[in-house]
Amino acid sequence: MASRFGKVDEEGINELKELSENENTKKSTEQWKNVFVKWATERGEEKNIEAYECVDSDKTLSQFYVEVRKESGEDYEPDLLSHASSLGATL
Predict the structure, then answer these.
(1) Which residues contact 76 (CB under 8 A, 6 or more apart)?
(2) What's the pTM?
């Protein structure tokens, strides 16, 4: 009887991730990364989001979500900020 659980190496997992990523999600994540870098630069924070430890990233991203504004200074709609939460997934 075949096993219910197959074995997949790291390369196979990465291939599956790449195939399953939505192109719009990739673009949105890159856009929010760029906004984060601008915010971090202005605040004197680490710009490389991947460099954060989990506890630090939670605190920093929470601060970012509260402070981020459109370039015009207007607030983002709350549902749009949910897309920014994809930044945390990059860690």
Answers:
(1) 68, 69, 70, 84
(2) 0.63
pLDDT digits (tens, 9 = 90+) for 32-82: 999 999 999 999 999 998 898 888 888 888 888 888 888 898 888 877 666
Within a domain: residue 37?
yes
Task: Name the CA dihedral angle for 48, 49, 51, 56, rounded to a multiple of 10 degrees.
Answer: 130
Structural domain boundaries enclosing 36: 27-90
Q: Is residue 77 part of a domain?
A: yes
Work out how many domains the chain is built from and give that number: 1
Q: C-alpha dihedral over 48, 51, 56, 62, to 10 degrees?
A: 30
% helix / strand / coil in the chain, to the nearest 5? 70, 0, 30
Is residue 48 within 8 A of residue 55, CB to CB? The reply is no
